[in-house]
Design goal:
This protein is of the alpha+beta class and 189 residues long. The protein has two domains: 47 residues; 137 residues, Ferric Hydroxamate Uptake Protein, Chain A, domain 1 (Beta Complex), CATH 2.170.130.30. The protein is 30% helix and 33% strand. Strands 1-3-2-9-7-8 form a six-stranded mixed sheet, covered by helices on one side. Strands 4-5-6 form a three-stranded antiparallel sheet, covered by helices on one side. A hairpin with a 5-residue loop joins β7 and β8. α1 packs antiparallel against α3. The longest helix has 21 residues. It is globular.
């Protein structure tokens, strides 16, 4: 390999690495997206993300026509998960003011907690996001939240951190060819 070829290869690797880190900070990020699924039927859809302490994230796209609450989305996931090829269950404690989610299990990844052990964060924290807005910790319970087309709910166990930034496969699929075409154009000049 010539010195010029070696230098071009090294520069290309550096550019690709910098590009991927610039486009998707999540590649160096908080969680590994283990699996995604699609369930339900309808013209609208919302994404439900689950982040576990072991660093695993799962995402379920829920399709619907009629209005559906955050809890209704979990009920739909539980009802249709087996036919979609995965296992999903959740448990709640019923209080007079509403249901408190204490357990989620997806394909053997599971956490149970009710926030009773110091530092009192060992529970499922509920986050919401509309379209391209930032995550916000929900100020209402999941039975009162009404999902809209394009919204995202996130469940994060045992930390006050927002849900992990997971690059959408579509954004990476568009970004990488754009980078390669830019690189190719430079080589033809």
């Amino acid at each position: 390999m010539s010195v010029v070829s070696s230098s071009v290869l090294r520069i290309s690797r550096i550019r690709l690495g910098a590009f991927l880190l610039g486009v998707s900070p999540a590649l160096a990020g908080h969680a590994e997206l283990v699996q995604t699924w699609e369930i339900g039927e309808g013209q609208s859809s919302a994404m439900i993300q689950f982040d576990f302490l072991v660093g695993h994230s799962y995402a379920v796209e829920v399709a619907f026509d009629d209005s559906i609450s955050g809890q209704g989305a979990l009920d739909l996931i539980a009802a249709e998960s087996e036919s979609a090829g995965f296992s999903f269950s959740y448990d709640v404690i019923n209080y007079s003011f509403g249901d408190f989610l204490v357990n989620i299990d997806i394909n053997g990844d599971g956490h149970y907690g009710d926030g009773s052990t110091p530092p009192y964060i060992d529970y499922w924290h509920y986050w919401t996001r509309e379209s391209s807005a930032d995550w916000a910790e929900s100020m209402i319970g999941f039975s009162d939240r009404i999902l809209t087309d394009g919204s995202t709910d996130g469940w994060v166990f045992g930390t006050t951190d927002a849900p992990a930034a997971i690059p959408s496969p579509a954004s990476l699929a568009l970004a990488i060819p754009a980078f390669l075409m830019t690189r190719r154009r430079r080589r033809h000049h």
